[in-house]
Every structure is written in structure tokens, then in C-alpha cells.
Design goal:
mainly beta, three-stranded antiparallel sheet, 0% helix
């Protein structure tokens, strides 16, 4: 069964224009988890995540996301890292 790797990161600095910057190149994530497709993740504790799956996938975010929330979401390709800003306490649901 396909799975999605989730790595959580915290904002690290403020840029020259006052924008938040994230640890995109930091090799060690604050927290890492794997979620099999057709399942929900645990609640996030940080504001940024990176995800990568071994098959094409769609994700939905929220307090209790389910498969019905995937309607209209983009299909993201396998083996590619995607970065999302998330709300701590929210979760993601992943499926094909």
C-alpha cells in the first residue's frame, strides 16, 4: 500500500521584508511520520510541513478531513516534495 511521508518544520527566521522563512533545506525535521493512503494524519504541532509519496496523491486539510474533502483537489505526482503551511491542530487526509 502506498504511503505519504510528512515532515514538520517551524519557521526559522524573518526575511529582509518581514516575511516568515521556513527550514526548507534543514536536513532534520522537528517531527516525521508516515501515513498510508486512505488515512488521516495525526494533528500537526508546527506550521510548516513537507510531504512526499511513493504514488500520485491528493491531500485535504482540516480538523477532521475525509475522502469527500478531496473533490476538486489537484493530483500531485509521486516522488516529489511539496511544502504546505498548515494550522497547528489540523490534520491531512491522503488518497489517490
Amino acid at each position: 500500500m502506498s504511503s505519504l511521508i510528512i515532515k514538520e518544520y517551524a519557521a526559522t527566521a524573518v526575511g529582509s521584508n518581514g516575511e516568515s522563512m521556513v527550514q526548507l533545506a534543514e536536513p532534520a525535521a522537528i517531527k516525521q511520520a508516515a501515513v498510508t493512503f486512505n488515512n488521516q494524519s495525526a494533528a500537526f504541532t508546527h506550521s510548516w510541513i513537507q510531504v512526499q509519496a511513493d504514488a500520485a496523491f491528493r491531500v485535504a486539510f482540516g480538523t477532521n478531513p475525509v475522502s469527500g474533502d478531496l473533490t476538486g483537489e489537484f493530483v500531485l505526482p509521486a516522488n516529489t516534495v511539496f511544502t504546505f503551511r498548515v494550522q497547528p491542530g489540523h490534520k491531512l487526509f491522503v488518497n489517490t
